[in-house]
Amino acid sequence: MKRMSATQHNSVVVQLRGIVKRYPGVVALDAVNLDLREGEVHIVAGENGAGKSTLMKVLAGAVMPDQGRIEMAGVPTVFTSPIDAMKAGVAIVYQEFALCPHLTVAENIFLGCEPGGFFIDTKQMRQRTADLLQRVGAHCSPDDITSTLGTAQMQLVEIARALNSDFRVLILDEPTAALSESETSILFKTIKSLRAAGKTIAYISHRLEEFAEIGDRVTVMRNGKWIETLPIADVSIRRLVNAMAGKDMSELFPVRKRIKGKTVLKLNSVSQGERLRDVSFKLHAGEILGVAGLVGSGRTRLLRTIFGLEKPTEGSIAIKGKKLTCGSVTEAIDAGIGLVPEDRKVQGLMLDLSIARNISIANLDQVSTGSIVSTARETALAETQRDAATIKTPTVHAQARTLSGGNQQKIVLAKWLARGCDVLLLDEPARGVDVGARHEIFKLIAQCAERGCAVILASSYLPEILGMADRILVMHRGEVAAIFPAKGATQEKILHAASVM
């Protein structure tokens, strides 16, 4: 990491000293210290469960610490609510969206701070919202109902709302997890301009490659404890990974035996109006096909169409030479197709059900006789998959919502691994997952391919595509812009194909 920090002599804006937070059976924060300086981007790094988000919630007034103190510009401060923190100049964009889905984008951005007094100045709201949306690179209107937006656009609206406040400190928790490369680039320009204006940014991310581009210093946390704080210029990616994981991890993407078997999946001129147009390709057993493209390119729609969630208007889809009716999830599953969707909490899991039930739901033929589910067989299947997928839980009867994001994603993956799919569709499989869990997920995907499963991996994060794929399919506005071998491919080549046809 090459860029030198310019903040070493800047004044300290925030000091957190000896912050302790306990939950039943867990010490989430163990006497953590953190300094944030004026005009710096301070990276807070660590695996899921390291305490990063909890520490930021303490600073944002959303969590009350059991011990410790906060100082703003040297003045002891107590935040008893997020409102206290906002009044002190602390704004936060959470990893989980906090938008009102039934309101417009403008209403969300100005919620609680509407201009005009008794009569709301809607014209001013709309104009200011339009300016903020342009600033963060969002492609939506102030009048759009928020529930109609995609994940990436919702993320940008959250960031725009934070920029609408008069903050001194801005906390960004995984802001680029749902963004494309181009959207991330625009966000980084905004962050750099805020830093130049003297604002302080606390930035949480699992994307280590981002740190050198925007970070000044990095603090590594592990198991609720502070590990080290260093200038970005003094830190290598490998040192960061090892500090976060507490062990040596030389390779993020596993080395695998690459095989290319018979054709398993064939798409012939699949179209869906303007959203998918004349998509054709073949996928072989043991092959990993990476699908890249900008937001709106059709990556997710392509996977949903193959899985039967969307019905094509033209063309055909065949598994092992047998054409599917299309538009039927049941038929797709019976044909040996599995889907890990981009939003695991909404589309991939039943959070209030147990790990065992989430795994068995796609494998009822293995755990039931007729319409009666055998609890013993369900538990045995889940325990086998827990061990195979290294899901960290003492019992498979725990609710899915109690697990970390990485372990939740492993449940979704284990559900289909238990079924022994011929074709596995993965939509952003490592989104919001820490470096340790990401390594384990990629290892599972590699093992799946080695066993002869044909894999489609769609991701907005190009290092994942380059690190895992045998071939890369690039989409642009619903069409296949290019297909080429992953060997010798670069991010620049992919982005060029994704942007120009």
CATH topology of the largest domain: Rossmann fold
Strand content: 25-35%
Let me know the average pLDDT. Answer: 89
Q: What's the count of strands?
A: 22
The domain tally reads 3
Apparent shape: globular
Biggest sheet, strands in spatial order? 6-7-8-3-9-10
Share in helix:
25-40%
Give a short summary of the structure.
This protein has about 500 residues and is of the alpha/beta class. It has helices at about 50-60, 80-85, 105-110, 120-135, 150-165, 180-195, 210-215, 235-245, 300-305, 330-335, 345-350, 355-360, 365, 375-390, 405-415, 435-450, 460-470, 490-500; strands spanning about 10-25, 25-35, 40-45, 65-70, 75, 90-95, 170-175, 200-205, 215-220, 225-230, 265-270, 275-285, 290, 315-320, 320-325, 335-340, 370, 370-375, 425, 455-460, 470-475, 480-485.
Give a verbal description of the structure.
This protein is an alpha/beta fold and 501 residues long. It has 3 domains: 12-245, Rossmann fold (3-Layer(aba) Sandwich); 259-336 and 422-501, P-loop containing nucleotide triphosphate hydrolases (Rossmann fold, 3-Layer(aba) Sandwich), CATH 3.40.50.300; 347-419, no CATH class. It is 33% helix and 26% strand. The protein has 18 helices and 22 strands. The chain has helices spanning 52-59, 82-87, 105-109, 122-136, 151-163, 181-196, 211-214, 237-245, 299-306, 329-334, 344-348, 355-360, 364-367, 375-388, 405-417, 435-450, 462-468, 491-499; strands at residues 12-23, 26-37, 41-45, 67-72, 75-77, 90-93, 169-173, 200-204, 217-222, 225-231, 263-272, 276-284, 288-292, 314-319, 322-323, 337-340, 368-369, 372-373, 423-427, 454-458, 471-476, 479-485. The strands form 5 sheets. The chain has a 6-stranded mixed sheet with strand order 6-7-8-3-9-10, with helices on both faces. Strands 16-19-20-13-21-22 form a 6-stranded mixed sheet, with helices on both faces. A hairpin with a 2-residue loop joins β17 (368-369) and β18 (372-373). The longest helix has 16 residues, at 181-196. The two termini are 34 Å apart. Mean pLDDT is 89; it is low at 1-5.
